[in-house]
Design goal:
Blueprint: H1 2-13, H2 22-41, H3 43-59, H4 67-127, H5 135-172, H6 178-235, H7 244-281, H8 285-322, H9 326-346, H10 354-373, H11 375-391, H12 395-455, H13 463-482, H14 484-499, H15 503-564, H16 572-591, H17 593-609, H18 612-673, H19 681-700, H20 702-718, H21 724-759, H22 763-777, H23 791-828, H24 834-890, H25 899-935, H26 942-1003, H27 1010-1038, H28 1078-1114, H29 1119-1132, H30 1137-1144, E1 1151-1153, H31 1154-1163, H32 1170-1180, E2 1187-1189, H33 1190-1197, H34 1209-1221, E3 1231-1236, E4 1239-1243, E5 1252-1260, E6 1263-1268, E7 1271-1274, H35 1275-1282, H36 1284-1287, H37 1292-1297, H38 1335-1339, H39 1386-1391, H40 1396-1404, H41 1410-1418, H42 1443-1453
Antiparallel strand pairs: 1-2, 3-4, 4-5, 5-6, 6-7
């Protein structure tokens, strides 16, 4: 027991380090439980030994006085200490393991979930579309990215929590497990950093794209405005004069005008260049159309302007010539030629920067166009000169001829220089683009190399991995070195360009060359550092592998040496030799302590630097080596301890043996030296007395001899060394022979002394000595002397009795000699010989008695030997059987779940119990033998026999207790199985009834009375409570508690926001762990089905109750009350009816579906019900077409108003004109007067004096158009130009404000839809004021915010991202349709209807008429935008805006009052899809 507890205590004192993995922690917990079970099985033996020890101590005189009792007490105290220590350490270890298990489960599960979420989010960000080219689209992309950022920022708290968990786990686990946890945390941190980096790159790209798009739109708008103003300015120039001064003034005016146009033409070329760059970024035709269409319109307008300028110039020059001012015209042309030639000669060669060259090329194109534009002037002047030349003569003619020739030469020279400059710039541009393309390609290649370097930061921890990484890097390094020549060529080319540059162009080349040098040097340094790092990693990994392999080889040799090492010998010389050998081995083990420490340090270093897969291998290798090392050290210590113990025992035996042998040899020498016997009777008596003292000394050595022999036999029995048995036999034989020899010689010498004493005439002394000896040995041979005991004692007694019999045999001769001498003395003596006869008779009687007692003792010893052998065999046979029984009981497996298998185990155990009961008889018999022996036992063997009796009884009781416990366990398991089977049948029967009842109740119609429904709910609640009460029974039957440990119990921060408030769902068995019993699977399935049916029934009852209560309340429904309540609620919310309708009408077409209306009211938190809203929707939808337009909406809320609905185009035009004019904010508002149908007079006194212009107005595809010059212009565009409060102050800030989305358009995350669109997303297509097909602008007067750039697409399926908290964002772009948060949005359902008006208007709304398209481009991305706060609508509630009243009064005070402007009536007429005017 002490040995077992000692081993367990040693294991508990040096437990293995706690792992970090959940499964390994569970294995350690199971190991700890096994130790607890082992301790529990030792409990009966422990209690029995404590009880027996207490009994022995109580029978003794006390532990303080009795050494044996003190020894027993010490061992009991040690055993109790071991027991308590093991229990305390086991509980402490178990608690610690459970805490670490809880921590590890939280950490690994949360980390895996968070890592998956972060990676999925990163994939989402990477999969987002490239930045758009339209500011509104880019704004939506930025908002989508910001939304992703907000959700990812919400993960930061979880990240910190996981980091804290990881730090706690690192602190709790062992040294070998810490690198793996740190690696996992580092991986999580790197993934988080990569996500932030990816998001930042996305935002930077979007910001750059936004900046470029806004700049482009600003430039585009500025160019359109300038062109409009320039055309107006050109058109307002006075007619060509008829006098010379006026014409000259007009020529100078045209020069200034052309200089201004020249500068703007350069800006136009830059704008074209920007458009080409954006075209390269465009991803589809829609985006290209967005860029190309305004540019085409701009180019067309520019060409028109050029034609008008040329025409004007020709007319002015023609007028000059017509006035006879040929010389002046010629001088003007020559001056222009000289000026243009100076410009060409003053231009410097430009190299290096493609942008600078392109700008110069654009300037040159402008110059060339100017030259080509003067071709007609040149021809006219030439023609006029030739005509004058023909009509002139003399010197004037020659001068004119010379001047005309000079003019022609200069013209041809100018053409050649212009062409040469163009070719020079083209070649320079080609060279610069080639150089920059080479640099760009080389920089991209460097970036690719840098990315490849950045991919694998961690190195290989194993030689194979490190070598593979090094070879891969060397391939990359060779590729890098191979491109060095390319780098030098590009670098030299850049330096060459830099040397032939001017400052402006060269700065760009210098920057490129400097960037190339920096990138090359940086990459070269990184390549060398990476190479050095990988070489060092390979060296470290190789050294580590070699050292590890050497250490493993040594460990293998050490283990083999320990395995083949001979067991500790009990021969002193042999064990000392073994100790010397083991000291050498122990020194070798200690010498390897530093290498294992170095290996551990190197391994930890590699684990921190290596890849994760290598970390696992290194950790396992180090753990294996460490375990083997600890086992070798432990085995070495144990062997040293065993050798030391064997040395002590061998030394103790050898010293006792040596001391006894030395004394026996000395005694033998003394006996041999004292051979001479004196003839003097006194001396003989003295020698006899001395020899009796020696015999007493020899008798005193008898216990020493017995102890030594017993010790030798015990060592022989326990000896495991092969050579110990013969050597111990020799030693025991030697001491036995020496003892027998000394005893024999002692008897022989006594016999000789007695004979000498007899022969010397001392008959009386010899006879008295023999009688004294007989009297001395007779008590030792008495019948009452105990001879029984254990086998060893009886064998010793037999050996001692054999020695006595030998001595008795040798004394037979002395007795015969004495008898013969006595008879001779009687026959020859003349004195009284009566005393001699009496002495002889007494001698004969004593001798006969001693001989009989000797034979009797021999017989009793043989019987005692037989009884001892039977007792010994019975005890050891029982102990062997009990040991086997204990092993079979201790290692029982898990009980089966099958009744038959369990019953077979019970039957087997019953047979085993029968054997145990049969063995009880053997135990009783053996104990009876022991008790019988105890009754006549030798005093020296009482303790031993009692010990054996206690051992067999305690062991038997222990095995019996275990057997009964196992029997109880089997019976309990069988009872549970039977109970569970009955419970299973009962539950299945109940479930059948419950399912049938629920199905029948579902088939019944719902009651119409509230009280009946409440009664049904109460009954169903009772049913649910009963089902809840049966839930533990179902759990018990299906044994779900066994699988709780396998399920993650810590799911933090990932709850569904839409969790049901129903009772907890039934626990069912997972599909992958289905029970073998099909009835249990049936129970699980039916239980879940019934539970769902019950929940559905509960939901239906509550819905029915809610519906009936609503109907009860709805019975007294009054729409007037509802309307007033709604209007009060709107006033309280400070909201306007118009704003609310606009918020619901997300596509801004002036109408909403019934469902959109109901959902909009309900989502606004207005206190109403769905039933009420259904009735309200019926009232609002007066015409019953399924749609509610703005007029129906206002008419229902304001029933006292007579809503005017324009029907004809003239009404629509009047309504729109009045609405637009009402937006003027000037102190003196300009006036519009209707002259006739489609004819209006505009009083534009604020800007162009007091002029009055009559304009024709018409409606084209729902857009009101105004006749301007030879074309048509959208009304709002016309007013933007002519209304001062609109025309001025249009800043970039307002342009940016256009990109703010309307409420509800795309403000949050939404799932991805399938690619495809029903309309081309375009800011101009969605513009209600600029687009030629925007129905919302012309059909009603409720001015809206800029609508979404894309119409909602129907039929797109939602595809959420699996395993991620985030959903892929949907934003307005050229590839993804704008939808709500789910696929069933009202807008989507609405767009799914086959509305001819809508389906035809969306695809064609982008193009419109040319004027409409022109209007679109002038407004940029969303020309429909104007401040919502300034929007006034006459159809909104009068109490909400005072503007309506002022507008109405102004209309009534006009000369021809028109109708109240109200929104136009909806029409279902398909709109024309033509895009031309």
């Amino acid at each position: 027991m002490l040995e077992s507890l000692g081993h367990i205590a040693d294991r508990m004192r040096t437990p293995p380090s706690i792992p970090a993995e959940v499964e390994k922690i569970r294995e350690h917990i199971n190991e700890n439980k096994n130790i607890a079970m082992e301790l529990e099985k030792l409990q009966p033996s422990f209690e029995a030994l404590k009880r027996r020890g207490g009994e022995l101590i109580s029978r003794s005189s006390g532990a303080e006085e009795d050494p044996a009792a003190k020894s027993i007490q010490d061992k009991l105290d040690e055993m109790t200490f071991y027991w308590d220590d093991i229990k305390a350490r086991g509980e402490e270890r178990d608690n610690k393991l459970l805490d670490v298990l809880d921590l590890a489960e939280k950490f690994w599960y949360d980390m895996a979930a968070l890592l998956t979420t972060i990676k999925d989010t990163q994939e989402i960000v990477r999969d987002l579309e490239s930045p758009g080219i339209d500011p509104s689209i880019i704004k939506q992309q930025q908002e989508a990215a910001e939304t992703i950022k907000e959700e990812t920022d919400g993960l930061h708290e979880e990240l910190e929590f996981v980091r804290i968990l990881g730090a706690d786990l690192i602190f709790a686990c062992g040294e070998f497990e810490k690198p793996e946890v740190k690696k996992s945390i580092d991986e999580l941190n790197n993934t988080w950093d990569n996500l932030n980096k990816t998001w930042k790159e996305r935002m930077d790209k979007l910001e750059d794209a936004m900046q470029a798009a806004v700049q482009y739109q600003d430039a585009l708008q500025a160019m359109f405005d300038w062109l409009d103003n320039t055309v107006i300015k050109l058109g307002e120039m006075s007619p060509v004069g008829t006098d010379i001064n006026t014409v000259k003034q007009q020529i100078n005016e045209m020069k200034e005008f052309k200089m201004e146009v020249y500068q703007q033409q350069i800006e136009m070329e830059k704008l074209n260049h920007q458009g080409e760059l954006l075209l390269k970024k465009a991803s589809d035709e829609t985006d290209r159309d967005i860029i190309q269409q305004p540019l085409k319109e701009l180019q067309h307008l520019w060409e028109n302007l050029g034609e008008k300028i040329i025409n004007r110039q020709h007319r002015v020059e023609g007028a000059l010539l017509a006035l006879g001012q040929f010389q002046h015209a010629l001088a003007e042309l020559v001056a222009w030629l000289n000026h243009t030639e100076e410009l060409l000669e003053g231009q410097k060669p430009i190299t290096g920067d493609p942008k600078a060259i392109e700008i110069e090329l654009a300037k040159h194109h402008v110059l060339k166009n100017d030259v080509l534009a003067h071709k007609s002037t040149f021809d006219t002047v030439n023609k006029a000169g030739n005509e004058l030349l023909e009509s002139s003569a003399g010197e004037d003619a020659s001068n004119l001829k010379h001047r005309l020739d000079t003019l022609n030469k200069n013209w041809q020279s100018l053409l050649r220089k212009t062409e040469g400059r163009e070719q020079q710039l083209g070649a320079a541009l080609q060279q610069a683009e080639g150089f920059h393309a080479e640099i760009e390609d080389f920089l991209q290649w460097l970036s690719r190399i840098e990315n490849q370097l950045a991919i694998s930061k961690s190195t290989g921890g194993l030689p194979e991995t490190a070598r593979e990484q090094l070879n891969t890097h060397l391939d990359l390094y060779r590729e890098f070195c191979a491109n060095e020549e390319t780098y030098k060529n590009v670098h030299d080319k850049g330096r060459l360009l830099q040397s032939s540059r001017d400052d402006a162009a060269g700065s760009n080349v210098e920057q490129c060359v400097t960037l190339l040098e920096q990138r090359w040097q940086s990459m070269s340094t990184k390549m060398e550092e990476r190479k050095t790092k990988l070489e060092e990693a390979l060296t470290l990994a190789t050294e580590f592998q070699n050292s590890l392999q050497d250490f493993i080889n040594w460990l293998t040799q050490a283990e083999q040496g320990l395995n083949i090492a001979a067991p500790p010998s009990l021969i002193l010389d042999t064990v000392l030799f073994q100790i010397d050998e083991h000291k050498i081995f122990a020194n070798e083990v200690n010498s390897h302590r530093d290498p294992i420490i170095d290996l551990d340090k190197t391994g930890n270093q590699l684990k921190f630097l290596s890849q994760k897969q290598d970390v696992v291998l290194i950790k396992n290798l180090l753990f294996s080596v460490q375990s083997r090392w600890e086992k070798v050290v432990q085995r070495s210590v144990e062997r040293g301890r065993a050798l030391d113990e064997a040395r002590k025992r061998a030394k103790q035996f050898y010293e006792a043996w040596k001391k006894l042998i030395d004394w026996l040899e000395e005694a033998e020498n003394n006996l041999d030296t004292d051979i001479e016997i004196s003839n003097d009777p006194d001396k003989i008596k003295l020698q006899l007395t001395k020899h009796k003292d020696f015999q007493r000394t020899l008798g005193g050595k008898q216990p020493v001899y017995d102890t030594t022999v017993r010790m030798g036999r015990s060592m022989k029995d326990k000896a495991s060394h092969a050579d110990d048995h013969p050597k111990l036999d020799n030693l025991l034989g030697e001491v036995r022979d020496k003892w027998d020899t000394v005893c024999g010689k002692s008897v022989e010498r006594q016999h000789k002394l007695e004979e000498a004493l007899l022969f010397s005439g001392q008959f009386t002394d010899a006879l008295q000595a023999l009688v004294d000896w007989l009297y001395k040995v007779e008590p030792q041979l008495a019948e009452d002397q105990p001879v029984h005991g254990d086998l060893d004692l009886v064998m010793n007694l037999l050996d001692a009795h054999k020695v006595f019999q030998k001595e008795l045999g040798k004394r037979t001769g002395s007795v015969q000699v004495l008898k013969r001498s006595a008879r001779e003395l009687i026959e020859n003596s003349h004195d009284d010989t009566t005393w001699v006869k009496a002495q002889l008779q007494e001698l004969s009687i004593r001798w006969d008695i001693v001989c009989k007692l000797s034979v009797s003792k021999q017989t009793r010893l043989e019987q005692a030997l037989k009884q001892a052998e039977e007792f010994h065999n019975a005890v050891h046979g029982l102990l062997e059987w009990l040991s086997e029984a204990e092993q079979s009981l201790r290692f029982r497996g898990v009980l089966p779940d099958d009744v038959e298998a369990l019953q077979s185990l019970i039957d087997l155990h019953k047979e085993f119990m029968k054997k145990v009961e049969e063995k009880r008889v053997d135990v009783n018999n053996a104990a009876g033998m022991g008790e019988a022996i105890l009754a006549v036992c030798h005093p020296d063997c009482v303790t031993t026999v009692k010990h054996w009796i206690t051992i067999i009884r305690a062991r038997f009781e222990e095995v019996l207790t275990w057997a009964k416990q196992h029997q109880q366990r089997l019976a309990t398991a069988l009872s549970e199985l039977v109970t569970n089977a009955e419970l299973l049948e009962e539950l299945l029967t109940w479930l059948q009834w419950a399912e049938t009842t629920l199905i029948q109740r579902d088939q019944e119609s719902m009651p119409k009375d509230i009280e009946q429904v409440k009664t049904s709910i109460t009954e169903h609640q009772s049913f649910m409570e009963e089902m809840t009460r049966k839930q533990p029974d179902v759990d018990k039957v299906t044994k779900t508690y066994k699988r709780k440990a396998a399920e993650p119990s810590h799911v933090r921060g990932r709850k569904n926001l839409n969790q049901m408030t129903h009772p907890p769902a039934p626990t069912t068995m997972p599909a992958q762990t289905e029970a073998k019993n099909p009835q249990i699977n049936l129970l699980s399935g039916r239980w879940q089905q019934v539970w769902l049916l019950a929940l559905e029934r509960q939901r239906k009852l509550h819905d029915c109750l809610d519906r009936l209560e609503e109907l009860k309340e709805f019975a007294n429904f009054d729409f007037d009350v509802w309307r007033k309540k709604y209007m009060r609620w709107m006033n309280h919310k400070k909201s306007r009816v118009m704003d609310f309708f606009r918020r619901i009408d997300k596509d801004q077409d002036g109408k909403i579906t019934r469902q959109e209306f109901i959902d909009g009211i309900l989502s606004s938190k207005f206190p109403t019900s769905k039933l009420e809203m259904t009735a309200v929707a019926d009232i609002f939808d007066g015409d019953g077409d399924g749609y509610i337009d703005y007029y129906e909406f206002v008419a229902a809320l304001h029933p006292n108003k007579d809503a005017y609905r324009p029907v004809t185009d003239a009404d629509k035009i009047e309504d729109e004109v009045t609405r637009q004019v009402a937006q003027c904010k000037c102190a003196k508002r300009f006036q519009v007067e209707q002259i006739g149908e489609n004819k209006y007079r505009f009083f534009l006194g604020n800007q162009f004096g007091d002029s009055q212009q009559l304009r024709l107005v018409r409606i084209l595809r729902s857009t009101v158009m105004v006749r301007v010059g030879g074309g048509w212009m959208a009304l709002d565009e016309f007013l933007v130009k002519n209304d001062p409060c609109r025309a001025r102050g249009r800043t970039n800030l307002e342009l940016r404000e256009k990109f703010i989305l309307p409420e509800g358009a795309s403000s949050g995350m939404a799932p991805f839809r399938l690619r495809g669109r029903k309309s081309k997303p375009s800011s101009r297509a969605a513009s209600p004021t600029r687009s030629s097909s925007s129905a919302s602008h012309s059909n009603h007067s409720c001015t809206s915010m800029p609508s979404s750039p894309a119409t909602p697409a129907s039929g797109n399926k939602v595809t959420p991202v699996q395993g991620s908290k985030l959903r892929r964002p949907s934003y307005h772009s050229s590839k993804v349709s704008l939808t709500g948060d789910n696929g069933n949005s009202p807008a989507a359902s609405k767009s799914g209807k086959t509305d001819t008006k809508r389906t035809t208007s969306r695809p064609t709304s982008r193009a419109g008429s040319r004027a409409g398209s022109r209007a679109n481009s002038r407004r940029g991305s969303d020309a429909s935008d104007f401040d919502v706060l300034e929007t006034q609508s006459m159809c909104s509630d009068i109490s909400e805006s005072s503007t309506g009243g002022s507008q109405a009064s102004s209309r009534r005070s006009s000369s021809k009052p028109s109708k109240i402007p109200t929104p136009a009536k909806k029409t279902t007429t398909p709109k024309n899809t033509n895009t031309r005017r």
